[in-house]
Amino acid sequence: MLKNDLLLRTLRGEQTERTPVWMMRQAGRYLPEYIAIRNKYSFFERCQTPELACEITIQPVDIVGVDAAILFSDILVVPQAMGLEVQLIESKGPVLPDPVKTAADLNRVRVPDVNETLGYVFDAIKLIKQELNNRVPLIGFAGAPWTLLCYMVQGKGSKTFDEAKAFCYTQPALAHQLLQMITDTTIAYLKAQVAAGADTVQLFDSWGGLLSKQDFETISLPYIKQIVNALKDETLVIIFAKGAWYSLQEMAATGAAGLGIDWCIEPQMARSFAGDNITLQGNFDPAKLLSPVPVIETEVKKMLKAFGNTKHVANLGHGILPNVPVAHAKAFVDTVKNYDWND
Ligand code: CP3
Asked: What number is the average pLDDT over the span 281-302?
């Protein structure tokens, strides 16, 4: 039995004693303890060594006091398992030297046996569950198919992912074939994460909002729907499609337990789009954690009030930035934990 299951109860729609809080990308570069490990091991060594992934996953639970741990890994381990080379170059981000551009390129991509290619993730999850010893739930995750296609086609990060979009607009049949392969891999991958012990899973569609509503609903949402459908009887699924506020209603209809929202939509408006039955997660501007601590405290309280005391998981509207002082991350978490609804 979990000692702190606030996140899971909130995702189930139950009224809890207080709002649960965690931060996207909480296991990472703003923590000196993470940097110390990064200085000794390469990125994929950190992902592929269960003891290292376990230590990094638990760091923010111990240091910042969040109500959930999120597995230390990356969304790009899936394209890697599907046969593409992925490099993570410091200060440059991910690079895929041989991206998918043509039908011939697609022959290099396969739907792998996840136990053979991603077994290290499931080993890490088992170890993390053991080390967490029921303190807080463990969140598993994967990238949404559209966001993974962005990297698999563009070959690197981009502000517009124009080449990925061009691929979808000029070779739609090929794009849908690739999206379906990613979807099939992701379903098997997330099911195995749950079987290994993940208590809930989040789908990151970081680049969903680069698409128009119509394109999001043909290129991204149908595949998210398939994944939620395959998982929802086994676990609680959170969808975070950054920027895709225009499809919150359609995302709520998938059967997901929670929807992540960013800071570009007001909580009340997100609620009116998503309806009353789903839990919302977010939506503090990550850059606002660079404000002085008293400003963070005031702004977090404003956010809590705007969402209300039920069906809300406090979080950032995107990942924490590397230059955020640990004390500021702690102020964010502590303000949520100490908030008195009678104030
Ligand atoms: O949330 C967590 O703390 C768990 C671990 C996690 C990482 N990446 C570790 C990581 C998670 C959930 C991710 C998801 C991820 N990875 C996303 C979706 C979420 C988002 O932020 O939009 C995306 C788009 C990626 C792809 C990726 N991985 C990029 C663009 C980069 C480089 C730039 C960056 O944001 O750091 C990575 C590398 C990466 N993944 C690091 C970490 C801790 C930094 C590596 C380092 O320098 O130590």
From this structure: 98
Residue located via tokens 């405290």: 297
Read off the pLDDT of each residue in 10-20 and give the average, rounded to a whole number: 98
76 lines ligand 1 (CB under 6 A): yes
Angle, CA of 293, 302 and 306, to the nearest 5°: 150
Structural domains present in the chain = 6-286+309-321 (3.20.20.210)
CA of 25 to the centre of ligand 1 (A): 7
Structure confidence by residue, pLDDT tens digits, 63-99: 999 999 999 999 999 999 999 999 998 878 999 999 9
CB atoms under 10 Å from CB of 262, counted, come to: 21
Instruction: Report the pLDDT value the prediction gives residue 343, as an integer from 0 to 100.
Output: 75
The response to whether residue 43 sits with its C-beta less than 6 Å from ligand 1 reads yes
Q: How many whole angstroms from its chain centre is CA 52?
A: 20
**Annotated catalytic, 74?**
yes
Name the DSSP letter for residue 140: E
C-beta of 25 in contact with ligand 1 (< 6 A): yes
Cα–Cα dist 6/237, whole Å: 15
Concerning whether 339 is annotated as a catalytic residue, the answer is: no
CB of 319 within 6 A of ligand 1: the answer is yes
Catalytic residue list contains 108: no
Out of 5, 30, 46, 151, the active site residue is: 151
- The residue to mutate among 75, 161, 193, having the most atoms of ligand 1 within 8 angstroms of its beta carbon, is 75
- Cβ atoms of 128 and 53 closer than 8 Å: yes
Average pLDDT, the chain: 97
pTM of the model: 0.97
Statement: residue 44 has pLDDT above 90 = yes
**Contacts of residue 105, Cβ cutoff 8 Å, sequence gap at least 6:** 98, 99
Q: Please give the C-alpha separations between residue 256 and each of 18, 49, 198, 259, in angstroms, as whole numbers.
A: 22, 31, 16, 7
* Residue 204 CB less than 6 A away from ligand 1: yes
